[in-house]
């Protein structure tokens, strides 16, 4: 009995360790090799049960091991997508950092030229073009970094969905193995069926909690059904400037033009398409109609007022 206790208790702990290590694969900051090493150790601890257990327990533990290994294989494939996207995200971030450094260097050159007396027009134009070029690089790669960040979220959501889908079978196998182990250790208090239902309910609660977390993450990035290859609608700085200028005019025609442009952009968001605003400050990535309306209200108040007035007239008719 002592031998069985020395094997069974670590095996029960190893089941939780194995499932925990599988979940850790969702974070690209965690080392895959370290996680897999812990998973292999956990599987080894569980496998020792086969050396001392009875036939029923061996069968239950074998089913659990098979399902753990199958889930590990599936999640390893999902992890590949996370690693590739994360690598691209880091590369884009490094490019932005280099572009910012180069932009700052050319700004320093331009500032030095001002202290050296009237600048030579040709040199001044060259430096100004370099500053504009690197600013464009900052804007471009910042947008790509934001898009890559969303693709990373999509890959992580796919990973979490795979865990949620596999959880019922894993729960069933772990419950059967747990009851078999408790039976051999003489730790079955009361009805085995009642214990099975209790453990199954605990597993279902865990699955529901995971589903709720997934739903919250989906809402945070704007919608529940996402396609990873969508490209954002980009409002360039020049387009942003024209929108602001049109909003500032008293004449009706420019504001109507701005209203048309804004409504077209908003319709893309409703369809699940991102809008990235390149104007003053950092690029603004918008994934929900509500956030877009807040931006229009703050950046284009006259356009917003016309849109609201049109909406009221439409309701009145």
UniProtKB/TrEMBL annotation:
It comes from the Bacteria. This is Uncharacterized protein. It comes from Paraburkholderia rhynchosiae.
């Amino acid at each position: 009995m002592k031998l069985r206790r020395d094997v069974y208790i670590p095996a029960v702990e190893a089941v939780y360790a194995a499932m925990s290590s599988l979940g850790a694969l969702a974070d690209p900051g965690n080392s895959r090799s370290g996680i897999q090493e812990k998973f292999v150790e956990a599987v080894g601890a569980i496998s020792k049960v086969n050396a001392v257990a009875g036939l029923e327990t061996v069968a239950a533990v074998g089913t659990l091991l098979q399902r753990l290994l199958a889930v590990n294989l599936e999640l390893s494939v999902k992890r590949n997508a996370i690693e590739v996207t994360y690598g691209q995200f880091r590369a884009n971030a490094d490019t932005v950092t280099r572009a910012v450094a180069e932009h700052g260097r050319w700004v320093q050159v331009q500032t030095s030229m001002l202290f050296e007396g009237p600048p030579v027009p040709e040199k001044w134009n060259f430096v100004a073009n370099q500053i504009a070029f690197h600013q464009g690089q900052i804007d471009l790669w910042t947008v790509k970094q934001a898009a890559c960040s969303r693709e990373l979220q999509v890959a992580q959501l796919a990973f979490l969905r795979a865990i949620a889908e596999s959880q019922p079978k894993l729960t069933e196998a772990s419950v059967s193995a747990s009851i078999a182990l408790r039976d051999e250790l003489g730790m079955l208090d009361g009805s085995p069926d009642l214990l099975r239902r209790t453990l199954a309910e605990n597993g279902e609660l865990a699955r529901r909690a995971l589903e709720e977390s997934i739903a919250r993450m989906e809402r945070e990035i704007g919608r529940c059904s996402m396609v990873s290859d969508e490209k954002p609608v980009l409002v360039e700085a020049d387009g942003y400037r024209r929108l602001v200028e049109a909003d500032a005019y008293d004449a009706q025609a420019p504001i109507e033009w701005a209203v048309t442009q804004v409504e077209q952009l908003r319709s893309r968001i409703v369809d699940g398409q991102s809008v990235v605003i390149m104007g003053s400050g950092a690029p603004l990535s918008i994934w929900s109609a509500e956030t877009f309306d807040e931006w229009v209200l703050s950046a284009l108040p006259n356009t917003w007022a016309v849109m609201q007035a049109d909406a009221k007239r439409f309701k009145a008719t």
